[in-house]
Design brief:
about 85% helix; about 55 residues; 4 helices; mainly alpha
């Protein structure tokens, strides 16, 4: 539950917490743009759900 909230507020942080540093950096660049925030959130949720399963 906490990871889902982190994915919505800071998707790059969710990537870093999962150990995906390069993806986290790319996610920061996506998150800095308004248009990229939604794909970054979806991407972080997908990674989090895949890691949890």
């Amino acid at each position: 539950m906490i990871m889902i909230i982190i994915c919505f507020l800071a998707p790059w942080l969710a990537m870093f917490l999962r150990g995906k540093v390069l993806q986290g950096i790319l996610c920061i660049f996506l998150h800095l743009t308004i248009i990229g925030w939604i794909p970054a959130t979806i991407w972080a949720l997908a990674v989090t759900r895949r890691e949890a399963a």
